[in-house]
Structure formats: C-alpha cells, structure tokens
Amino acid sequence: MSISDPSAAQTPLLDDTIDGCLDYKGRPVRRSSSGCWISASFIIVVEIAERFAYYGISSNLITYLTGPLGESTATAAAQVNAWNGAASLLPLLGAFIADSFLGRYRTIILASLVYILGLGLLALSATLCSISSSGGQNADDIALSSSLQFQVILFFSSLYLVAFAQGGHKPCVQAFGADQFDTQDPEECKAKSSFFNWWYFGMCAGTLTTLSILNYIQDNLSWVLGFAIPGIVMAMGLVVFLLGTMTYRYSVKGDEESPIVTVGRVFILAVRNRKTSYSAIAAEEEARGILATESSKQFKFLNKALLAPDGSKEQGEVCSIREVEEAKAVIRLAPIWATSLIYAIAFAQSSTFFTKQGATMDRSTAMGFEIPAASLQSFISLSVVLFIPIYDRIFVPLARALTGEPAGITLLQRIGSGMVISTISLVIAAVVEMRRLKIAEEYGLLDKPNVMVPMSVWWLVPQYALYGLADVFTMVGLQEFFYDQMPNELRSVGLALYLSIFGVGSFLSSFLISAIENLTSGDGRDSWFANNLNRAHLDYFFLLLAVLSAVGLTLYVCCTKYYIYTRWGRTF
After folding, report:
1. Nearest in space to 455 (alpha carbons), one of 431, 426, 425, 424
2. Helix, strand and coil in the chain, % to nearest 5
3. What distances in angstroms separate CA 77 from CA 66, 337, 374, 467, 512, one per listed residue?
4. Whose C-alpha in 16, 78, 231, 250 is 20 to 30 A from the C-alpha of 456?
C-alpha cells in the first residue's frame, strides 16, 4: 500500500512514541499499543501468583515448625521472623542486579524459575518428612536421626532459596508494573497512583485465596500438597507474564555506569572535599547557573561533590547537579525508612503470635467446620480487598476536591494514617488477650494448654481487620513513596528499600522476642512467650508494641516536617 504524504503519516507515530522506552524488539514504543492497564494486568496476575506462593509458605510456617519439625513457640517465632527478614532484605541484592546488569524483565524471569525450584524442593522435604514420620518405632534410631537431619537441612535450604528468589522477583515486578505508566503524561500519572492501589488489591486477593484454601489443605490434608500447589501456581503465573511480553514498555538502559555507583561517587567526592568552603561551592553553583531551591539548601554538604578534590573540572572528576540531587533524594529517605521500622515490627506479629493466639480459641463454626488458625490472617486481606475500591473510587476523589492533591492526600500523610490505625489495633489485641487469659483462668485451664479456651475466635477479627486497614494506608503508601521519590534508574532499589523496612523489622522483632524471652523466663517463671499460652503474657507484649508504635509515630511526624518531595521528570 502506497503512502502519498510520508510526513503526514509519520507525524502521528512520532507523537505517539514515549521517550526513554522501547518495545520487546528494541524499537520506539507506541503509547496507543503498549503499557498502561493492558500490560499492568499481566504483571498484576504474576504478582497474585507470587503472593499466593509466598503466603502459602509464610502464613502457616510457624505451625509447620512447631508441628512436624517439633520446635518451641519462641524458637519457631524467631525462625519465622528471621526468614521473613531475609526475604525482605534480599530484594536489595535483586534490585542492584536488575538496575545494574540484567534489567527488570530478565530478572523477573530468572527469579521466577528459581522460585519454582525452591517450592519444588520444599514439597520434596515435606514428602521425606511424611515418609520418616510413618516409619514406626522399629526403625533404626541412628538412620532415623540422620534422615531427620537431612530433612531439616533440605527444608531450610529450600526455604531460603525461596527467599532468595523472592528477593529478585518482588522489587522488579512492582517497578516493572509502574514503568508501564508514563509519569510525563498527567492522565497516566494519575493511573500510576491507582496502579499501586490495585496492585495491593491483587496481592491481597492472592493472599486471601491462600489463607482460605491452602492453610486448610496444610492443616487437614497434606503438607506435601500444601507446598506443591504454590509451585504449580507460580509456574502458571510465569506463563501469564511471558504472554504479555509484546505489550510491555522497556526502559532504555544506556551504557553509562551503574546509578548506584554514581550516587556512591557523590558521597565520596563530598567527603574528599569536606574542607572546601561553602563560598567556593556558592561560586561554582553561580557559575553553573544553579538557582537556589529548598532542595539545593538541604544536605548542602553534598554540593561539595560539584568540585573536584584537586580543584580541576575535568570530565568525570566532578558530579553534575542532577547526580547530586539523586544522592540527596536517597539520603532524604533515610529518616522515613528508620521511623517506619516500628510499624514493621508490629506487622510481623500477624503471622506469628496472632496465629498462636487463635489456635487456643474456639474456631468451630455453625456448620461444624473448624477454621485453621493461620486462615485468620485472611481477615487482613479481606479488609484490604473491601477497602481499596472505597479508597480509590470514593475517598481519593473527595479528598482531591478538598486538597487539590492528585492522590487526595500526600504520601506521607497516607503512611502516617496507617501507623495510627496500627497502634489502635495493637491496643485492641492486648485487650482481647487479657480477656482470653481471664476466661482461661475462670475455667481452670491455666495448666491445660491443649484444651480449647471457650472464647470465640471471632474476637480476633477487629485486630486483623484494622491491620488490613492500616496496610491500605501505610503499606501502599510506602510502596508508592519509595518508587516515586527515587530516580528512574534506581526505582527497583527504591522498592527494595521499602521491602527492607519489613526485613529489618522482622529481625528487630526476632531480637525483641529473644531479649524478652531471656528477661522474663528466669527463676522458674513462665516467660511472656511460654509454650503454654495460658501462662504466657502476650498482652504485655502487645501493649509494649503499642507504646513503641506511638513513639515511632511521633518521630515519624517530626521527620515529615522537613521532607522535601522530588518530582522526577514531571512537567505538570
């Protein structure tokens, strides 16, 4: 077919292309046939599958450790927190590999394959455990002991292989999904903010399915099947992700050095120039035509990287103003990261002590069905699934009309709101636990840990539901905040930093539990985390966390007063 006016035919195509993005064949990508919600849908599906797999392991892990593996409650809780911590810190490594070498798309595929391998080995370890436990008393004790040791090694190796794979998968999938929206286009920028809401909606939908179905299979049918199903679902998710390959927008990665190295050089040059006077820096800024802004005045010592240590200005010896601003953006996040750790410590309790708390209570229903203790976490996901549409479709438009903010409220306001709700939830958890202990005492069950406490498990629903509501504000807010406030080249790292909050929080929770266990278990006393929860004091622990959360919230509010938002690449 001939084209009479080539320029007329080419102009729409040029106007339709997106700067800084290519298609799967390395060609300029067209806005009308790529990205946005079509591409994001494929990516959200693979995230649903990944969350189904991850929570299929983590949500009931404490039950497996205290059951088939025979660990104590405190040891198992510490193991779960350590694993969750590693799973949340490893994304820093995965993000570095993605942003510096492989790119997000390739990292997602590689991490998914390792994920499937880890889940398969986990199912194998459960199979071996099932075989050995049915061997009977006549089995040779030495052989049985050796077999058990191998199973434990295989189990924990597989478990940490899953954590390693999650470290590559988690930051890249979310960053790659957000990359499908052009921040220089006002409409797509608004859609990107909604993407984070619906992303978390999809995550919790996958989690809700896990907690509703998989935990029942693990508790009542088979741990082997309970570990094998997540592997199958993860494989299906990878297939769906690959089906969207032709619709994705791929960020252009130039031949320049790693952005992490660039940021590091800013700090190194600033330290080397520490003796440089601020008058010399001011002269250099004036020579470059740099206008004084709030951002340029903050962390002014980094502006010393604009000069070479020996006073020369050769290419490569000094940093550009953009590189300095990128370094400032990273350091500006540090106080927000640090003050969010208390929230992460509180968040870690839902899969450990909340679960053990529910296991002692009346979990029967009117139909005679007994709710698995780990499935109570589904109320967190259910709360999120119910509230996110309300937040995105009702709250945001109303708040936007009042504040003029595209997202209704600022990201920092959103994060802080969730912290308040989380603190309230911990107070409620403590009050419910006090009532559970009182009922156990009234019925003479203090020394009968295996007897059900005649108190309905539905008493735990408010604390779970409030945890979900807190997640809608804080978790989603942190995700968008650490993505939005990082330069484009470092956005996988930004999301890894967000995840590292919960990794460090899990480790701090594990340390806190161990410290309290040692302090409260001396002189023949029952510790706060005694295996017999009727003699334990989880209520004291929840109240302690509520106090720490209030302190953390106060520090967070103080830090937000000095935060300066960065608007990378926006023209509106």
Report:
1. 431
2. 75, 5, 25
3. 9, 24, 14, 19, 11
4. 78
Residue range 420-472, pLDDT digits in tens = 999 999 999 999 999 999 998 888 888 887 888 888 888 988 999 999 899 98
Place of tokens 């709101």: 417
Pairing of strands 453-456, 361-362: parallel
CATH 1.20.1250.20 fits domain 331-564: yes
Secondary structure element (H or E) that encloses residue 424, with its range: helix 411-442
CB neighbour list of residue 450: distance below 8 Å, 6 or more residues apart: none
Nearest of 545, 295, 268, 304 to residue 433 by alpha carbon:
545
Pull the structure tokens for residue 131: 């075989």
Domain boundaries, the chain: 18-133+142-255, 259-319, 331-564
Helix (H, G, I), strand (E, B) or coil at 453: strand
Q: By C-alpha distance, which of 171, 172, 178 is closest to 39? A: 178
Identical fold between 18-133+142-255 and 331-564: yes
In angstroms, rounded to a whole number, what is the distance separating the alpha carbons of residues 440 and 448?
A: 9
CA distance 7 to 11: 6
What global pTM score does this model have?
0.72
Q: Which residues contact 468 (CB under 8 A, 6 or more apart)?
A: 204, 379, 380, 381, 382, 383, 384, 387
For 331-377, the pLDDT digits (tens) are: 889 999 999 999 999 888 877 788 778 888 888 877 767 777 777 87
Q: How far, in Å, CA of 300 to CA of 530, rounded? A: 52
Residue 422: name the closest of 452, 365, 383 by CA. Answer: 383
CATH class of 18-133+142-255: mainly alpha
The whole-angstrom separation of Cα 429 and Cα 415 is: 21
Tens of pLDDT along 121-144? 988 888 877 665 555 444 445 444
